[in-house]
Specification:
Blueprint lengths: L1 E6 L13 H11 L3 E9 L9 H9 L2 E10 L2 E9 L3 E8 L9 E9 L2 E9 L4 H13 L1 H4 L6 E6 L8 H5 L4 E2 L20 E6 L2 E8 L3 H6 L5 E7 L1
Parallel strand pairs: 1-2, 7-8
Antiparallel strand pairs: 1-12, 2-4, 3-4, 5-6, 6-7, 8-10, 9-10, 11-12
Length: 235
């Protein structure tokens, strides 16, 4: 099975500032993932031509879609989107807003994969280290997260964690760091990546076969982050 995680920057190129959802779709199609976790997905916002990106992306891939709106923008919003080739048995969302900082959240879905149920946790964490530590602690301790403890679990997304300080917190809850060492998983900024901000962690009977960053010229142009791809089996 293949998972792709990507901060798509609303479909706006990191350098040319051109909006093109088509570039995002083309780049994802080239990787042929079964599970797609996208951050900064716009819905009805001026900067992205008032497109309903969750609907358009779900239609492009003909996947099951779960959208979590986090940040209001005018009459629209942006947030996180999970697309799955397989049915979704359950879906939850957790607010990770810390104080008066920008709203953040996590999506918790159980996917009915052909290899068994998979608990997929998708998030986009804050910019401050103290905020991120609080967010991870809240996520790991939340009753909705712990209710799926019996399932193999993947936690993925844009962690905004420049110093890799969250890996230890997740390790204490039994998670293995898939995107390590950081030198192999630099994703930001896309055109000259120096920060390994996009991460993946696994717990339970998950056999990770390969993990990599997509460094094609199209990926470098389409967003300000590069996509992360993880090939794995539920064993």
């Amino acid at each position: 099975m293949r998972l792709l995680s990507w901060n798509i920057h609303k479909g706006i190129g990191g350098r040319d500032r051109r909006y093109s959802l088509g570039r995002i779709v083309e780049c994802i199609e080239a990787e042929n993932p079964d599970l797609i976790c996208l951050q900064e997905v716009d819905r009805l916002v001026r900067r992205s031509a008032f497109d309903d990106q969750p609907r358009l992306l779900a239609r492009a891939f003909r996947f099951h879609a779960v959208f979590h709106q986090t940040v209001p923008v005018g009459d629209g919003a942006y947030g996180n989107l999970v697309l799955s080739r397989w049915p979704v048995a359950s879906r939850h969302r957790i607010s990770l807003r810390h104080g008066n900082r920008k709203p953040r959240g996590a999506q918790l879905v159980v996917v009915e994969s052909p290899e068994g149920p998979l608990h997929l946790v998708h998030t986009h964490l804050g910019l401050a280290e103290r905020e991120r530590r609080w967010q991870v602690e809240r996520l790991l301790g939340h009753m909705l997260f712990r209710s799926a403890d019996t399932h193999p679990t993947l936690v993925v997304g844009d962690f905004n964690d420049w110093r890799d300080s969250l890996a230890g917190d997740l390790a204490r809850s039994g998670f293995r760091h898939i995107t390590s060492p950081a030198s192999r998983f630099r994703t930001f900024p896309a055109w000259l990546a120096i920060g390994a901000l996009d991460k993946a962690f696994a717990r339970g009977p998950i056999d990770v076969r390969h993990a990599r960053v997509v460094r094609t010229s199209l990926a470098k142009a389409a967003s300000d982050h590069l996509p992360l791809v993880v090939d794995f089996h539920v064993t």
